[in-house]
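Hi R.,

As promised, here are both runs. First protein below:
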Amino acid sequence: MKVTALRSSYDKVGGIVHFGRMIDKIRLYAAGTLPAEYHPYLGSAHPHSFDGRCCRFLRIAYSTLAARAKEGGKDEELFQWACACGRKPSDEEIEIWNAFMQKRGWRDDSSSRLRERVREARIAPEAVQSFFDFNDADEGRPPHFPADPSPQRSQFAELRLFPACAALTIRLVEFSTLDGCSTRFD
């Protein structure tokens, strides 16, 4: 569902993902224009909400941040204020936060919920690898990252199972040695 004035979780404020989207949701909710299906995941009421995770990361209460966001101000100013009231994460902590959040739903304990949400929304599964991707697809934004390229057959070993003779054969197709020479094994 497209929601006007709600940015992607991938968009960064203060170098971190999701903070800007959380501020957008606070403002939309205060204005009465945030769709009802977003309400259960506002703030920190739901233990796995991204808003709650972001506030815990910055060590600031959601209610405190929401009250300040409703007063107005630029996003970057709100982020600096949140860091002053809570904590300012290091560059390494920000890198880890961003990587964790951008991959949430990809090969982790929330993967099954992501697949369920994708089915419910009738989104092409290949378009979604994470919850950030899901939100973008559901809200009509183009993918943030291009689709992963398909591996070329000559780069990998082939594994073939011939059921008729129950023989398992492995064939290393081709590889490059360190000196740049191609070698072929059969």
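And here is the second one, sequence first, then its structure tokens:
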Amino acid sequence: MQAEEFILILTSFYEIRLKEMHPEERMRFVNQDFSQLDLDKVQKSDEYQKFQQEVINQSRIDFVGLDFSKSNFTKTRHIILESSQKNKLFLNLTNATLIETNFEDLDISGSLLTKANLARANLKNVSLIACFLDLAILMNANLTNADLTGANLSRANLGGANLGGANLTGANLLGADLSGANLNGADLIGADLTKANLERGRI
């Protein structure tokens, strides 16, 4: 997706938003392909500057509460998803393709990531408190120092994932695949590891 296409999507969203429709009707970006989109480049583009002046008159892209179900973020770069609270973002990313997406240092606590494909994604230092990651694919993902307190990771595929220093206190890992995962320094107090596969896992 090119910057120009993305601006058109944003414009459409904000036009609907300004009509003050029901929240469920104005918060959907379903089936959009954001693959290889550089949001840093978007925000510096002439098109976005014009969009800011004419439509929203604000300094950043605000995606709070938007539904990205089944959307594709493969290799998205510099994904800057912020709200009025610094680095705080709630997303519905159910079934979304997020392969190699960078979410480093973001707070997406409580977000819905059921069945999302986060293979090789960068989730370093990300707050995933109480997130729904059941049946998610997190193979070889970087979850170093991530906060997964109370997260639902039941039947998630974490094969080869780096969970070094991660906080998994009270997390639901029922039937999760942790084969080959790095759990060095991870806090597993109160975590449910029933039927979890820890073969070749490093604890």
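A quick note on the second one: Residues 3-18 form the longest helix (16 residues). Let me know what you think.

Best,
J.
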